[in-house]
Design brief:
The chain is of the alpha/beta class. The protein has helices at 12-21, 33-41, 53-56, 68-79, 100-114, 128-136, 152-155, 165-181, 193-202, 223-226, 244-260; strands spanning 25-29, 46-49, 86-90, 118-122, 141-146, 185-189, 207-210, 218-221. Strands 1-2-3-4-5-6-7-8 form an 8-stranded parallel beta barrel, surrounded by 7 helices. Strand 3 (86-90), helix 5 and strand 4 (118-122) form a beta-alpha-beta unit. Helix 2 (33-41) crosses helix 4, helix 4 (68-79) runs parallel beside helix 5 and helix 5 packs across helix 6 (128-136). The longest helix is centred in the middle third of the chain and has 17 residues, at 165-181. It starts with 11 loop residues before the first helix and ends in an 11-residue tail after the last helix. The protein binds 3-methyl-2-oxobutanoic acid (KIV). Residues 29, 48, 50-52, 90, 187, 189, 210, 220, 222 line the site of 3-methyl-2-oxobutanoic acid.
Length: 271
């Protein structure tokens, strides 16, 4: 596929059709215009403006500090770049926990101020009523179960979730509840592959996995992780498709050397 070929816009209907015909959905995170444009033109099906922006773009140790305003700022930059992928924006910690009304107001702001295609919200049955109201307002919602990073303090870390039968049973029940509440897709993060596969079989909506094995309907990774931009975060579910950290470091070293030796700019590079 040519890098610049225009492709039809991916919608919630495309997601449903892809699950029906067994076509895997590719999703990557992006948080800015330049990266979103590259990823979109390369043909990814969906871009998630994740609250992992707190870690990746702002250097926070958790996703908790990022605000609704900041998510909207990142989200609007991404939607301005994208013509093909379905853009999903995370509802950050503190934007929906207080009440159903707070969740609806936050989702409406995200859609109004970014022109995104959907929002994503973490949690199971406890957020079902909020999801119901948001979808009834005409806003498509992606659920998020398993390791939900906004609950890192309650979990006591980022370990594999739902290893025990009770938590696995709860996750299946939550997935069915979220489907019933109106989610059109669901992210399932860092759970045993067999459990994610079983959920994908039991629900009609696409399950997008991260650290959840291959027998789900799609995969999502943080763009900076799969591009090899960080030397700090390397869980076993991240495959490096490039070593951009090294490429950038080499380019910067070459630039510094050229400036120091006055070989940049050359006569052709000046007016
Ligand atoms: O914020 C994020 O990037 C996410 C993905 C890891 C699924 O929620």
């Amino acid at each position: 596929m040519s890098e610049t070929k225009q492709q039809a816009k991916v919608t919630v209907n495309t997601f449903r059709q892809m699950k029906e015909r067994g076509e895997k959905i590719s999703m990557l995170t992006a948080y800015d215009y330049t990266m979103a444009k590259i990823i979109d033109q390369a043909g990814v099906d969906s871009i998630l403006v994740g609250d992992s922006a707190a870690n990746v773009m702002h250097g926070w140790p958790t996703t908790l500090p990022i605000s609704l305003d900041q998510m909207i700022w990142h989200g609007a930059a991404v939607t301005r770049a994208v013509s093909h992928a379905l853009v999903v924006i995370d509802m950050p910690f503190g934007s929906y926990q207080a009440s159903v009304e707070q969740g609806v107001n936050s989702a409406v702001r995200i859609m109004k101020e970014t022109l995104a295609d959907a929002v994503k919200i973490e949690g199971g049955a406890r957020v079902a009523q909020t999801i119901k109201q948001i979808t009834q307002a005409g806003i498509p919602v992606v659920g998020h179960l398993g390791l939900t990073p906004q609950s890192v303090n309650a979990f006591g870390g980022y370990a594999l979730r739902a290893k025990e039968q009770a938590e696995a049973d709860q996750l299946v029940a939550d997935a069915l509840t979220l489907q019933e509440a109106g989610c059109f897709a669901m992210v399932i993060e860092k759970v045993p592959a067999s459990l994610a596969a079983s959920v994908a079989q039991q629900v009609k909506i696409p399950i997008i996995g991260i650290g959840a094995g291959s027998q789900v309907d799609g995969q999502v990774l943080v763009g900076q992780d799969m591009l090899g931009m960080s030397d700090m975060f390397r869980p076993k579910f991240v495959r490096h498709y490039a070593n951009i950290r090294q490429t950038v470091a080499d380019a910067v070293k070459a630039y510094v050397a050229d400036v120091k030796t006055a070989s940049f700019p050359s006569p052709e590079e000046q007016y």
